[in-house]
Amino acid sequence: MSNKKAVNLTTRDMEIVRFMEETGLPLSASQVSKIWFWSGNEKSALVCAQRRLLALYRCKKILRIREYVGQEYIYYLNKVPNQLKHKQLMIDFLCQLNMNNFKVLDVQVEWKAIEKSYGVRPDLFLTVEFSGKQYNLICEVENTKEFDSKKYEKLTSNINTEKSLHTIIPNPMLIVAICKEKPNPIKRANGLYTPVWIKADDFSNFSNLMYRLVK
C-alpha cells in the first residue's frame, strides 16, 4: 500500500487549469496569488498559490519549468511556452487589474474577430467590470517594440458608426498600450484618439486606466 497521501483538488484549482487551457498563458505562483488568492496580504496569498500549484503539479494537471535554481517556477500545459516574457507581461497586466478592483469577466488572447476587416489582432481582448460598469479593453502588449498607432486608425474612426462593431465590441471600448515608451496618438476621421498608456516596466502609471474610466 502506498504511503502517499491523496491530493484533493479544489474548484479554484480547476479554475486555474481551465484558464490555462482557454488562454494558453503560463502562470507563476506570484501571478496566481494576485489573480485567484488576492486579499491584500501578499505573503499569505503567495503561500496559498504555491500550495495549490504544487498540488496541481503533483496530480500531473500542469507542468513547470525554471531556468535556474532559486528562480520562480513557471507553470504551463502540454509544452514549454514560447515568447515567455511577452505572455508573462499579459498576465502581469491581469494581476494589476485584479489588485485594483477590476473584475475580469472574459479574457481572449490574440483576438481575431476584427482581423479580417480592420487588419489588427490585439494581444488581449478583455471584458472587465469597474465601478459597476462593463468595458472592453483592446490591449497591445509590447515588451520590446513601440506601440503601432497607425494600425488602429480605421478601427477608431469607425467604432461609433459601424453597427457590426457594436455586436463584436458591445461595451465602451478603450485601447490600452502596455509598452515602455509613451505611444503616439491615433489619427482618426474625427480627430485624435489617445490610447491608455501603461508602463511595461513597472505599471507605475496604472492609474491612467482608472482615470480614463471615471473622468
Q: Could you explain the architecture of this structure?
A:
By secondary structure, the chain is an alpha+beta fold. 36% of the residues lie in helices and 22% in strands. The protein folds into two domains: 1-81, Arc Repressor Mutant, subunit A (Orthogonal Bundle); 83-215. The strands form three sheets. It has a five-stranded mixed β-sheet with strand order 4-5-6-7-10, with helices on one face. The radius of gyration is 19 Å and the shape is elongated. It starts with 10 loop residues before the first helix and ends with a helix.
At a glance:
By secondary structure, the protein is of the alpha+beta class. The chain has helices spanning 11-23, 29-35, 42-58, 84-99, 115-118, 153-158, 163-168, 207-214; strands at residues 27-28, 63-65, 74-76, 103-109, 124-130, 133-141, 173-179, 186-188, 191-193, 196-199. The protein has 2 domains: 1-81, Winged helix-like DNA-binding domain superfamily/Winged helix DNA-binding domain (Arc Repressor Mutant, subunit A, Orthogonal Bundle), CATH 1.10.10; 83-215.
